[in-house]
Write a structure and sequence with these properties.
alpha+beta; Aminopeptidase; Alpha-Beta Plaits; 2 domains; four-stranded mixed sheet; four-stranded antiparallel sheet; 6 helices; elongated
C-alpha cells in the first residue's frame, strides 16, 4: 500500500516533533495516506505498529587490489563482499525469531572499473526494515559482528555506517478506535478494512512518538483499473474520490472527539 519515500536522517540529527514543541497541548494526532491498491470507499485500519522502522547501512570492505592474473598477491574485497552478502541472508532466517518481522535487502554493490584489475575496495549498501526496537538494535549488532568476522578472517578491514530512518508508526488503541468509529460514521459500517503492519517507512512516526495517534490508509483504487500501480510508480493513479473520503474521515474524527 505504501512505498518508502527514500529520505532518512542520522539518528542524532533526526528531530522529533516533541523536541520542536509543536505537540504541546495536543491530546491525539491523526494522519492518513491514500492507497492506490485499496478499494475506493474503504479505509485500512491497523492497531499497533502500522509501518516499519526504516534504516539503512553501508559497508566498505577494504582489501588490497592488484592484477587479476595474480590474485594471490591481493586481498580480494569482491570475494569478501560476496561472503558478507551471502551470510547476511541468515540474519533474518537464522538469527531472528520467526515470530518477528525483519527485512534486510542488499540494494547497492559497487566495485572496480576494469575487468583485469582486482579493486582495493567494495561498497555495499542495504535497506533494513523492522517493527520493534529490540529487533532493530539486535539486527544492526549481528550484521556488524558478521562483517567484522568475515573481513578479519580474510585479512581485510571495514567501515560500517548505520543511517537511522524514521521509526515505526504506532497506532495507539484508543486513538485508533476513535478513527474506526469515525470511518463507520462517515463512510459506512462496512468501510473499515482491518490490516497488519506494512514494511514501508513513514515520517508520521515523529508525531506518534510524541503523543497518542493513528495513521490510516484511505482506499483510492480506480474502479476500472484491475492492476493499479503501486505508489511512486510512473503509472501511479488514484480515484480522487478517496481524497474526499479522507476529508470526511477527519470530520468524523472531530465529531467523535467533540460530541
Amino acid at each position: 500500500m505504501l512505498s518508502e519515500i527514500g529520505f532518512s536522517l542520522d539518528k542524532n540529527q533526526q528531530a522529533t516533533f516533541s523536541d520542536l514543541k509543536v505537540t504541546d497541548g495536543v491530546d491525539m494526532v491523526y494522519g492518513l495516506h491514500v492507497a492506490s491498491q485499496l478499494p475506493s470507499g474503504k479505509v485500512g485500519v491497523i492497531y499497533g505498529p502500522a509501518t516499519s522502522n526504516s534504516d539503512q547501512f553501508h559497508v566498505t570492505v577494504k582489501g588490497k587490489g592488484g592484477h587479476s592474473s595474480q590474485p594471490d598477491k591481493t586481498v580480494d574485497p569482491i570475494v569478501i563482499g560476496a561472503q558478507i552478502i551471502s551470510n547476511m541472508q541468515s540474519v533474518v532466517s537464522r538469527m531472528t525469531s520467526p515470530n518477528e518481522e525483519l527485512v534486510v535487502s542488499i540494494t547497492t554493490l559497487q566495485a572496480g572499473e576494469a575487468v583485469n584489475v582486482i579493486p582495493n575496495e567494495v561498497q555495499i549498501g542495504a535497506s533494513m526494515r523492522s517493527l520493534k526496537q529490540d529487533v532493530r538494535n539486535n539486527a544492526i549488532q549481528v550484521i556488524e559482528r558478521m562483517v567484522k568476522g568475515i573481513t578479519e578472517a580474510n585479512g581485510a578491514s571495514y567501515d560500517f555506517k548505520v543511517i537511522y530512518g524514521y521509526d515505526s508508526v504506532f497506532n495507539e488503541e484508543t486513538a485508533t478506535a476513535v478513527a474506526e468509529r469515525a470511518i463507520q460514521r462517515r463512510l459506512g459500517e462496512d468501510a473499515v478494512l482491518r490490516g497488519s503492519a506494512i514494511m514501508g517507512g513513514e515520517d508520521f512516526s515523529s508525531f506518534t512518538n510524541a503523543v497518542p495517534g493513528c495513521f490510516v490508509f484511505v482506499g483510492a483504487k480506480e474502479a476500472d483499473n484491475p492492476t493499479p500501480a503501486p505508489h511512486h510508480h510512473p503509472h501511479f493513479r488514484i480515484d480522487e474520490a478517496g481524497m474526499e473520503d479522507g476529508v470526511n474521515l477527519f470530520l468524523g474524527i472531530a465529531e467523535e472527539l467533540v460530541f
